[in-house]
Amino acid sequence: MVTDLRAAVGRADAPVLIxxxxxxxxRMGAPHWREPPAAANIGALAERDRAAGCRAAWLNARxxxxxxxxxxxxxxxxxxxxxxxxxxxxxxxxxxFSADADIVSELGRAAAxxxxxxxxxxxxxxxxxxxxxxxxxxxxxxxxxxxxxALMESDFRPFRxxxxxxxxxxxxxxxxxxxxxxxxxxxxxxxxxxxRGAIGFDGLLLSDDLSMEALSGSLGERARAALAAGCDxxxxxxxxxxxxxxxxxxxxQLSPEGLRRWAIEKENLNEDNVLNYNELxxxxxxxxxxxxxx
Length: 294
Hints:
Helices cover about 45% and strands about 5% of the residues. It has helices at about 1-10, 40-50, 50-70, 100-115, 150-155, 155-160, 190-200, 220-230, 240-250, 255-265, 275-290, and strands at about 15-20, 75, 120-125, 145, 165-170, 175, 205.
């Protein structure tokens, strides 16, 4: 399927993206592929043993990369750098490593480096932070009322720590400290002042899935607005042909800045995907089992 997709667009190097986080978000699972655990499980290990948690995060991502590259996929929307917040929507929940920004930063770095080691580009998400949201952006637009100071002290910290990563994904969340009207994906203020400014991210910026109901308007209008706000690429995921056509009719070619960013990202790809899969798999399982004991 991946080979046919690239043939259809006439580009052997066309990037193919997947959400293969683990836990609730798995696109390739049993019986053909390993099913990774939720990020929170690795975070719980890190809270007991930071070094073991970081190693487990790297191993888990390296094994994910091996599975993905085996079928030709070269971009994974991982790691989730959102924080866990009590009382927030469960849309993030155990997809996040921890409520501790330092743990999230360290495990996020390890996971990203595990993907890169296996020739898969990581995507940090959901910028500038989805953890506080009390609504699920798949169904409604969440609002975050936290001050800039509070966001800088917590939500933004993992993203700042990994701002050198190649690709980021925006959040369909309204951040009232920056823009009280528009969700981050469609807000030039959020992208310029929060993502590019306060966080300092200069990588390729994807919109989150434009099909999600946090956004309003037609799919073409959403795509056009995301690009106008500062996203480099408009992401449409549900495969509905009418929506696909609407998006395609409303987007432009990649901007010069986007082309520059993509050229840099391709240089990060490691084509050497040789590893002892079973050995790393056993090491990961042993870490998760042995250190989980009281």
